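Honest question from a wet-lab person: if I give you the sequences of every part of a complex, can you actually get the arrangement of the whole thing, not just the pieces? Trying it with mine:
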Amino acid sequence: MKEVNITELERMFQEKIDQDIKIEPKDWMPDDYRETLIRQISQHAHSEIVGMLPEGNWITRAPNLRRKAVLLAKVQDEAGHGLYLYSAAETLGADREDTIDDLHSGKAKYSSIFNYPTLTWADMGAIGWLVDGAAIMNQVPICRCSYGPYARAMVRVCKEESFHQRQGFEIMMTLAKGSPEQKAMAQDALNRFWWPALMMFGPSDGESKHTAQSMKWKIKRSTNDELRQQFVDVTVPQAEMIGLTLPDADLSFNEATGHYEYGEINWAEFWEVVKGNGPCNKDRIDTRRKAKEEGQWVREAATAFAQKRAARKSA
Amino acid sequence: MSSKEWPLWEVFIRSKQGLNHKHVGSLRAADAEMALENARDVYTRRSEGISIWVVESNNVFASDPSESQEFFEPADSKIYRHPTFYDVPDGISHM
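Yes, you can. This is the full assembly:
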């Protein structure tokens, strides 16, 4: 390769990005681009994996076989999504084992939403409808992300997740049409998950330290507040349709802008949960650590079996 | 011993008869059999494939993107390999 200095390489890199040419694993990229992507993709992977826990809590207690089969399929998809994402992070040189250890040590973050408990069956509805709905809104623009492997993983994830949101909405709709107790259960789940779902989009644009650079690199294609607004705009009519009330006294439609205006988000709560002080942070990480420790013998057995089989083949 | 020692595998899937296998991603597995089963569970949960190839990633030899200009140059200069290079007078058909 010709001798080119870093500034020149960076200029050529940005030019590719500006022309919407995808960046692939072996292409030259600035260190910060690589690090930002490793951080974002591994956080995303961790969110999928930790995201299995609140729902896993209800698999054995699903109200009927259909709901159980659906919930199992959804949780299995989340495991798959975590795996797509860990392998996308690996294409950037991240070591999978280290990445997972960073989650377990508390160094790496995951979506704040999974630190809230799932108290009733209606929470499965609220999670599918709101949490997966918000996740899809976040992920659709990432299908056009500048980094090829991440964009391709997102295409698959988005395709698979559309059923996740629908099954959640169906649970909420069924409960909302049910007995007064069932409707109250749905309303209670909505009350508890609405604000945490809005927080999933991350801090306001003014507070988000990574947004500007990530937009320039086309890792991010929309800002946190834009996506949050989009989510509110599509969700309000859905709640009205099934006769549930969003827990926000300030919510109103602005005829002039065509958007819903919503109340102040409790950012103090958001930051507490991000820092590790949410209701379930400790429990989630303990569960993941325990899963890794208790699965150790399975991994060892698989390795030993593979060695035995290889030895037998070469004998 | 941990999964760290499990090799990385590239996964290729034929989505239907008549199409070629296409790279879809990668995964970790102890051996080829486990890689195939994991590939089925991770990449074909919705009948995306009828055939899977797994190849250990360190057996894949790839061209270097920083040398791609020189590497692919021989093809770039031979425009006479394309039918549009030739003039065909009006009135000539089936060509």
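Two things worth pointing out. Chain A touches chain B at residues 1, 24, 26-28, 73, 76-77, 80, 83-84, 87-88, 90-91, 95-97, 149, 152-153, 160, 296, 299-300, 302-303, 305-306, 309-310 (CB under 8 Å). Strands of chain A lie at 252-254, 259-261.
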